[in-house]
C-alpha cells in the first residue's frame, strides 16, 4: 500500500486530508509541525509527502531541506500545501526540489489528482532509471575489453615491473614508470567520470519537468572567471601556456556551475590535445544578442564533416565514431549539456588546418 505523510499544523485540515487519503486506500501518517514531521518521515519512510509551508518551529521549506539530505527520502515526491503561492514562494520551493503546489482551499478531487500525477511520474522515472542503469551496464560490458582494460593493464603491468625489479632500476627509469602509471590512472579516472556524467545528463534530458527546473533556476554570473580559470589550468597541464590566447567578455548565463565546468574542460582539453605545441589555441567569449558564444580554435588535425555529423548519432556511444574522432565521449557529453540549456554546440573544421568549436549559451535576461 502506498504510504503518504501529511505535515499540517491546522488540525481540521490535517484530519480532513487524512480521511480523504484513507478513503482512497492510502496508508497515512500525520504530524502537526515540521520538526515532528521530519522525525516521523524517518520512521514511516513515505512514498509521498504533503506538507504545509507556513508552520511554527520548522516551516515547509525547512522540512524539504531536511529530507533532501536523507538518502532514503531525498527522491520522495514532495507537494506543498499553502494558502499563499506567490511566484517567489513557488520559485523558492521548486529550487529546493518540491514537485508541486496545492493552494488552499482545495477539493478532495484536486488533492487526489495531484497525488496520482506525482506518484505516476515518480514511477515512470524509477522505471527509466532502471532502464538507463541496465543500458550503462550493458555498454560497460561491451567496452570493458578495450576502453577500461587498456589503462588498467598499463597500471598493473608497470606496478608488476616495479615490484619485481625496482632494485635494479635507476631513478630515471622508476620516475618514467611512475609517470606512465599516473597517465593511465588519469585516463581510467576520466573514462569512469564520463560514463557517470553521460548517465546523469541523459536522466535529466529524459525528465521534462527536471529539465525545465534546471533551465529556470540555473544561473552562472561568473562565466568569465570560469572560462579564464579552466583555460589557463588546461594550458598549464599541457605545458602550453605560451600557446594560449584569451579574449573574454563578462556575462551571466543560464547553466549550472558543474555543467559549465565539465563542458569547458572537455572542449578546452580537446583543443590542446589535438594540436601541436607552439601552435595557437584561441578562446574568445562574447555576447551576441541574447546569447553568449564561447569560441575555441586550434590548428591541428581537425575533423571531417562526416565525423562532425556523427556526433549527432550519439545514443549508442558508437565506438567506431569515437576512434575516428579521437575526442571520445567528451564531445557527446558537451553537446548534451548545451542542449539541456537550449544552447548549441557548433563545430567548424578544415582537416589539418583549423578547427573551431562554438559553445552557444543563453544569457540571463
Helix content: 55-70%
User: For the residues shown, what is the average pLDDT?
Assistant: 85
Radius of gyration from the CA trace? 26 Å
What characteristic shape results from the CA principal axes?
A: elongated
Number of helices: 12
Number of strands: 10
Reported by name, the CATH topology of the largest domain is Heat Shock Protein 90
Report low-confidence residues grouped into runs of 5 or more: 313-327
Q: Pairing-aware structural class of the strands and helices?
A: alpha/beta
Amount of beta strand: 15-25%
Strands side by side in the biggest sheet:
2-1-3-4-5
Q: Helices and strands, in N-to-C order?
A: EHEHEHEHEHHHHEHEEHHHEE
Largest sheet: 5 strands, parallel
CATH top level class name of the largest domain: Alpha Beta
Number of domains: 3
CATH-scheme architecture of the largest domain? 2-Layer Sandwich
- Tell me the CATH superfamily of the largest domain: Histidine kinase-like ATPase, C-terminal domain
- Quote the distance from N terminus to C terminus: 46 Å
